[in-house]
Amino acid sequence: MNKILVTGASGQLGSEIRHLSSQYPFEFIFTDVAELDITDEQAVRHFFETNKPNAVVNCAAYTAVDRAEEDIETADKINHLAVKYLAQAAQEYGAKLVHVSTDYVFDGNGHRPYDELATPDPQSVYGDTKLKGERAIIELGIADSAIVRTSWVYSTFGNNFVKTMRRLGAERSELNVVADQVGTPTYARDLAAFILDMLPDFASPKTELFHFSNEGVCSWYDFALAVMEMSGLDCKVKPIPSEKYPTPAKRPFYSVMSKEKAKAQLGVEIGHWRDALQRCIGEM
């Protein structure tokens, strides 16, 4: 395996894969919509026929969670149908496939970390379309493919919660942040390394599900406090309940995911979210 197609390459995860790419003995093909419109089935087939990738990492996603409640068709095209087209092409041309999914496939009403066997029950259009994308892959039964669910992704690239908190923390003396939604932040660089490390030796007769985030548990309020502290910003963060910050899409109240399967089967070591955040902020 030497040629890897990375879709959604200008997003947070795709950018982190590009950043790490020189450390891996692969030939990378980085694409975004300008180079490959993955919602165009014929374009996907033609790209595979022309470039013959040995593996595909699909980082592309419609991630505007609130806008998806209105823009259902576009969210479905990118999060579901495009995934189906990539999976079909990967199967036809014998390529490995790693697809990135989300904690939003769960209802968020649990109180123990969700493992890969937990029953999905999305509460938003975003979560629903991402689950449909997962099922499109699973129904094809592609060998050597994996779906990696992650949560609360941030990076030195793109727009994300960490950058927003740093910007607002520099502009304001006080911020209100939701304190009753609990999960785990994921540094996109750690997720990128996890995916690139698993690719060479990963083999399975069927599609495997894995959960990956950094270790530990926090609320958005805790996360914001840590960003201010590590950034040296003197901005007071006040905890508020979700009802004080209504959004069009329902957020999971609890979306901590168990990483035991990834650790047991792939031998991965996962760092704590605070350590990962410190590394990221150190680069900003």
Structure description:
With 284 residues, the chain is an alpha/beta fold. The chain has one domain: Rossmann fold (3-Layer(aba) Sandwich). It is built from nine helices and twelve strands. The strands form four sheets. The protein has a six-stranded parallel β-sheet with strand order 2-1-3-4-5-10, with helices on both faces. It has a two-stranded parallel ribbon with strand order 6-9. A two-stranded parallel ribbon has the order 7-12. The longest helix has 22 residues. Keywords: NADP, Oxidoreductase. One of its GO terms (molecular function) is dTDP-4-dehydrorhamnose reductase activity. Belongs to the dTDP-4-dehydrorhamnose reductase family. Its EC number is 1.1.1.133.
